[in-house]
Amino acid sequence: KNEVEQSPQNLTAQEGEFITINCSYSVGISALHWLQQHPGGGIVSLFMLSSGKKKHGRLIATINIQEKHSSLHITASHPRDSAVYICAVKGGGADGLTFGKGTHLIIQP
Amino acid sequence: NAGVTQTPKFRVLKTGQSMTLLCAQDMNHEYMYWYRQDPGMGLRLIHYSVGEGTTAKGEVPDGYNVSRLKKQNFLLGLESAAPSQTSVYFCASSGYYEQYFGPGTRLTVT
Predict the structure, then answer these.
(1) pLDDT above 70 (res B1)
(2) Residues A91-101: tens digit of each pLDDT
(3) How near does any CA of chain B get to the CA of A97, in Å?
(4) B31, B43, B97: residue with CB nearest A99
(5) Set of chain A residues whose Cβ sits within 8 Å of the Cβ of B97
(6) CB-CB neighbors (< 8 A) of A86 in chain B
């Protein structure tokens, strides 16, 4: 069973700061997902990665397969980025995702 | 396209009652999943299906049953609800790598 660890668990920052959330996993994977969940809200997929780096607007996700580690970066953070960010990994089969416990991010104006 | 929909959005049950949660997807995906989300535990896989007529157990299957009679629908049943099943339930569908999540069902068992 893959163990997925995220850090930090909670993060409070000021508007405009550069944010980094880390994810590590214990067993090789076929893909890694970064998900976003607003309070009381649904789950939105931000990125799916199997190698390298992806960028979407102010969000950047990277993955190092050899080190079993991924990072999610938010540049020029904004209060609307306040949410829970969840890392999830997929093994090689058809079974579902294994999730980290999430990082609760608050961006203060 | 509606994507992934879940019915109902909220439900309160008494211990011992039964209910069925419905998940529907219109993306012609083969794979469908039921997860539960609990504070401090994160999301965990209950059951999944790799195609019409097939189901398999996930990490926390006890107390739940599922059926996939039609490709677009995946049903999650609670035969005798227990307070430990109070949770938010998410359905997801996938072509293989991408996962699309439904809006969730908030279930409270008293």
Answers:
(1) no
(2) 877 778 999 99
(3) 7
(4) B43
(5) 30-31, 48, 50, 90
(6) 42-43
Question: Cα dist. B68→A41, A53, B25 in Å?
Answer: 26, 36, 12
CA distance B16 to A77: 47
Instruction: Please compute, for residue B22, the number of CA atoms within 13 A of its CA located in the half-sphere on the CB side.
Output: 8
Whether residue B43 contacts residue A99, with contact meaning beta carbons closer than 8 Å, is answered with yes
Q: Where are the alpha helices (DSSP H) in B12-104?
A: none
Q: Mind spelling out the 3-state secondary structure of chain A?
A: CCCEEEECCEEEEECCCCEEEEEEECCCCCEEEEEEECCCCCEEEEEEECCEEEEECCEEEEEECCCCEEEEEECCCCHHHCEEEEEEEECCCCCCCEECCCEEEEEEC
Percentage above 90 pLDDT, chain A: 83
CB spacing of B99 vs A100 below 8 angstroms: no
Q: Are A21 and A36 in contact (CB under 8 A)?
A: no
Which of B35, B43, B46, B90 best tests the A interface by mutation, with the highest count of A CBs <10 A? B43
Contact yes or no for B97 and A88 at CB 8 A = no
**Cβ–Cβ below 8 Å for A31 and B97:** yes
